[in-house]
Amino acid sequence: MQTNELNGDLLLTEGQASQAQAFFESLQTVNLDEVTTNTVKVAIRDSKVVTKGGRETRVHSVRIAEIENFVPMRVFNRMLASRERVMRERKKYLMKEDKGDEMDPMIFWMLEQVLAVWQQTEEDMTRERLENGLDFTKISKLFTLFFGQLLQMQQK
């Protein structure tokens, strides 16, 4: 991008101008009063401590959580801001020959992003509960559900 030296206006290339035009046209085709959030039902393994006969024990159960598929702008912006950092960390991780017990940073990052959306519905959800209650397949599917379309729109 260049600037016009006379008045400081930005000068766009033909490709940038066409991309900007397509973006603004896509905004005009949406009736914002028709945009609604959806709820996704997720089976999650949860636990709680109960007292039986004076003794505390942890009881596990599976519950169905109904999570709103709504990503506020602040959550989306935080996800975008942290994406480049985690990609650099992952590149370093993949280059290591001996990873030991170290986990792929991308997995933890995806979990954090899913947690941020989940907490819009269940404020008391913690990373530990989510990590222990969902397997990687569900976490990756939720990440795609919450952020996939937004990332595709952002990249266009």
How many separate helices?
5
The secondary-structure class comes to: alpha+beta
Number of strands: 4
Mean pLDDT reading: 83
> How much of the polypeptide forms β-strand, as a percent range?
15-25%
| Uncertain regions spanning at least 5 consecutive residues | 1-8
Largest sheet: 2 strands, antiparallel
Order of secondary-structure elements:
EEHEEHHHH
Spatial separation of the terminal alpha carbons: 17 Å
Tally of discrete structural domains? 2
Rg is 22 Å
Strand order of the largest sheet: 1-2
* Cα shape: flat
Helix content: 40-55%
Keywords summarizing the entry:
2 domains, two-stranded antiparallel ribbon, disordered N terminus, single chain, alpha+beta, 156 residues
Structure description:
The chain is of the alpha+beta class and 156 residues long. The protein folds into two domains: 1-35; 70-155. Helices cover 51% and strands 21% of the residues. The protein has helices spanning 14-28, 73-95, 105-118, 127-133, 136-155; strands at residues 2-3, 10-11, 39-52, 55-68. A two-stranded antiparallel sheet has the order 1-2. α2 (73-95) packs antiparallel against α3 (105-118) and α3 packs across α5 (136-155). The model is unreliable at 1-8 (pLDDT under 50).
